[in-house]
Design goal:
Elements: E1 17-18, H1 19-29, E2 34-37, H2 44-52, E3 58-61, H3 65-79, E4 83-87, H4 91-95, H5 97-106, E5 110-116, H6 132-136, E6 142-145, H7 152-164, E7 170-176, H8 177-181, E8 183-184, H9 201-213, E9 217-221, H10 228-241, E10 245-247, E11 262-265, H11 272-280, E12 283-287, E13 310-315, E14 329-332, H12 335-342, H13 354-368, H14 379-389, E15 395-398, H15 403-410, E16 419-420, H16 430-440, E17 446-451, H17 452-456, H18 462-467, E18 473-478, H19 483-492, H20 507-513, E19 517-521, H21 527-536, E20 541-546, E21 551-553, E22 556-557
Parallel strand pairs: 2-3, 2-4, 4-5, 5-7, 6-7, 9-10, 9-12, 10-11, 12-13, 13-14, 15-16, 15-17, 17-18, 18-20, 19-20
Antiparallel strand pairs: 1-8, 21-22
Helix pairs in contact: 1-2, 1-7, 3-5, 3-16, 10-12, 14-15
Length: 558
Amino acid sequence: MNRHDPVRPANAAAVLRSGGEILVSGLRLNGADRMFGVPGESALPIFDALVSAGPGIRFIACRHEATASHMAEADGKISGSPGICVVSRGPGAMHAAIGLHTAWQDSTPMIMIIGQVPRRHRGREAFQEINYTRTFDDMTKWVGEVESPDQIPEFVSRAFHLAMQGRPGPVVLSFPEDVLSATSDVADAAPAQIAQTGPSDAQMLQLEGLLRRAQRPMIIVGNLGWTPAAAEQFNAFVAHNDIPVIAGFRSQDVLDNRSPQYVGDLSLGCSRALMERVKAADLLLVIGDRLGDVTTNHFSLLEVPTPKQVLVHVFPGAEELGRVYIPTLAIQSKSSSFVDALATLPTLDSKPWAAWREESRHALVAYQARRADAAGFDLSEVIAHLDDQLADDAIVTNGAGNYTIWLHRFYRYRRLGTQIAPKSGSMGYGLPAAIAAKLRYPDRTVVCLAGDGCFMMASQEFATAVQHQLPIVVIIVNNGMYGSIRMHQEINFPNRPSGTDLFNPDFAALARSYGAYGEAVDHHDKFPEALARAMKADRPAIIELRVNRNQLTPDRSL
């Protein structure tokens, strides 16, 4: 049978199925094995189909649609296939919008399935009615509303193709409830076949010439489009040619941070000296990063639209090449395909930039040195202990806030797929991401780092971790305020704090109320033993760090 033919053989008897059954079958045929969401009455036929579908798709019932959508986004980020989220219409869809925004900014494949009012009621402002095409058009690759159960295989196929091809991203499928309950004998479509992009021989020859003329080259890597094999190939290439590598925003897990060629990351609160080195480079090879706001320090490290540096930009989506910066050489390619070609280049003469690479590495080592004069609770000691104790394949998740600056600066990621964090800068991301990661990789250690404000935006999902008996460790940095906003207040309106103080529960007691492990520590010296106890508890755990609220970042204090 041709892969593009309907899955049902031509001589097979027609089978009437509900729209919900057709949808679930299409998802399963495209490799979906789990869905995250909050059930609603507009999508009841989907949940009924899951009952009789047999093994294949597991539904994870969440406590809020926002966190459900972030679980789906994180699962897409981890697996490389679209994360699936299903929510009810109106309020459910709007709650879940945050996950769509994160998937859009993070280039994560994701499919959100939304129930809709019956077809005959549309346009009357029926109960919880929303026009999803207008609402989500600016943060998705496509919004489709299915008009008939006969269209479901086509729409599911299009959703998977669009979510994964080019620059990956989110897709929304809206299903009127009468479409889900109607029946059809339509055949399933074949699984999506994703087109692959790669560099041409002429482009690689031009790249080789540019590299050979460089005196101060740098490679900037984003975490889009890699495979473990490609990451190993890349590690070997940069080691063999001694080229310095910088991680784009929250892409620190592409190259082993212990490598002599790894020289830092371009993140919020990153090294000023590193940013000056990017400006001083004469060639930038950018792989899998779209050169967004944070990576470029608000578009200041490269001149817009024509950088002073020779810019080679490798990215899977053609629409991003030249969108902000005009590259010397634009290559539309998935990172893994490009690295396959990169590995075939002849050995480069690295002597012109040997000192440049060595100085860049020494600067990183000095930047990561912990301060001897740190007062009170030193969060860098906590991160250093995690760095020392966690296995190379341990997954670390986080949301947004000043606490992440310590993680970016002092933790050394060693393996692809171990940094799960939102480029969108969304608070409340770390806990749902940790749940998705532990469900995907139950045998790997999963640690979530969250601020007190960040955790409280998703705290209800700790119940989900307990319900599914997921032994994640959640480390809450409790300074009793929205620290990053307080920092900006002190910069712009000194000594005039407003709206940033927080009242928090006893987080350790909260964990124990769920039957989980909970402990609070008031000094970094007590953290190692607390972590050991949490890891041995073999159930969800919270460690509350009661830190010095005056220490806003490693380098800034009130």
